[in-house]
Every structure is written in structure tokens, then in C-alpha cells.
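Review form for a predicted model. The reviewer records the input and the model, then writes brief findings.
Reviewer: anonymous (R2)
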Amino acid sequence: MKIKDVENRVGISAANIRYYEKEGLINPARDETNNYRDYSQRDVEQLERIKVLRVLGVPISDIRQLKDGAVSLGNVMEHRLELLKEEEKNLDAVRRVCESLRQCNLSYDAISESILAEDEECFSRQLARILKEDITKEILTPRQFNKNLALALSWGYFLSAVVSFFLGSWLLSYSGTVKEAGALMNILGIAEKTLPFAVAFENIFFVPLMLCIACYVLMYFTANVKILFFVFHLSALNLCPVIAFFYAFATTFFNINPTSQFENHSVSGLHLCLFCLMLAAYVILLYLLSAAWDRLFSKARYAVVTALIYTAVLTLLTSISDGRG
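Model under review:
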């Protein structure tokens, strides 16, 4: 059965079902024709057991051990009862303080930390748990996430278009002819055998490429919004030189002289600028389509078809304009 059928039968959302699969609690089969998950009656029964245990507060790790036969249900319940006793003890301490504050009829300004001195250890554990919950979190809906992502990408491609407009022609005119390593390679002491691909081009290409790679690595390993914002802009500004780098690499690798073989069809900074603007327009188009049709990103084939149509339209428009020129 499909995941929608399982949702209706068990009363658990698809996101939770996939999470339990990721945690190894269920292992549905795959349909060989389309690679979709095919849930069995056994999977449904397992999800029902998971639901019961999660309602009782049993952690995922204990449920996994139960499923693997590493522990017995009795041992898990005994551990859960011990935790409940500890929780009850904490609640009793909180209840006593609340009743005391109500009876004393204190004002807000009269509250002090000395009130918690009666059971300091208990309240320390309670404070540690609450402080984790009090960290500000913003839950984005899929529509809000799509909007933020579309705006960020569009702004980044716009920055790349600006850089391409002013510097693109100069970067592309910078020959990609294979030559000895430049001054930076000599300063760093990097041998040709260590990075043979790097010494083939001048450092004006090599540095932005390394910066982009460093940016993407940093984005993968950090969740700090300020760092991500800075890294995103740095990588966006580097997109134009990186494109020029690969363009120079291709012309050198395939021994192509664009000015002689393509004549009036050589790539210029304006081409790079239009390329980045078209990327920004495509991102905005995807966002508008997703806002009008919620299922746009629910299936990969929808996004692929949209990309193919957009590519075909742009290719046609480019051919028409080139023919007129």
C-alpha cells in the first residue's frame, strides 16, 4: 500500500513515517516498476506498535532495541517507570513552590532565585530542560521556505549578473592557455604534481574557484545564519569568474580558439550577464508556479519537466535572436 493509505490507517503523518524508516524502525519494500515505497501489513502493525510506545513516552532508541530483540518489553517498561517517578518528583517540587507563591500572595518584583533553594538539584534539571525549549525557533511552512529560497537565489544570480556585466568580457578575454604556475602558486609552494589542474590557468581563475568550493563546504558544516548570509554573497559574486574559469578550461582542453572558429558567436561578458539573469528569472518562475500549484515540488518529474520546457523556450528565443543578428 502507498504512504497515503498508511497515514489514514495508522493516524501518523508521512513525515513521521519516513522518519521512523530513517531510524530503522520500519523497512518497506520498493516497487520495482517505479521505486515507490510499498508498505505491507507488517509495516502497518509495526507503526501501530511505535505509536503506542511513543504515546507512553518510550524513546526511539529503546524502541529500536525492542525491535532488534536486544531488550525485553519488561525491561523497557521498568526503565520508563523509573523516569516517570523522577518526573513525578520534579512535578511535586514545582507544585509545592507554585502553591507557596499563591498562598504568600507575592508580587512579581518579590520573586527571587532563593525560592528555588528548597530543592536545588531538582530545579537545576528542570531549568536545563526548559532552557533547551526556550531557544527561539521559527517554523517555516513549505510556502515560506520556497519564498525565502527563491528570493535568496534570485538575489545571488542578480549579483552574478552585475559582476558579469562589468567584468565578464575581461575575464573571458583572459587566455586559458596552459602555462607555468603564477606568483600565488609559487608563494604557496604547491607543486605541479600536487595540483596539476590548477597550474594550467592563471590565479585569477584559480582563487575564485577555491573560494566557491570553500563556501560550499562551510555552508554544509554550519547553521549560523550570519555566516550563511556572508558565504552566500561571497559565492554569488564568485560565480562569474568561476564560469569564466570553466569556459577557459574547455577552450584550452579541446584546443578551441573562440575568436577564429566561432567568429561573431564568441562568448562575452554580456552573455554571462544574460545567463545569470535567466537563472534568476527561472527561480522566480519556479516560485510563482509553486505558489499557484502546491504539488510542483511533490514529484521530481514536475520540476524536471518545468526545467526542460524553460530550457527549450530559452533555446528557441536565443536561436531567433541570433538568426536576426
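Findings: Confidence is low (pLDDT under 50) at residues 175-202, 259-264.
Further findings: The first helix runs from residue 3 to 10.
Recommendation: see findings above.
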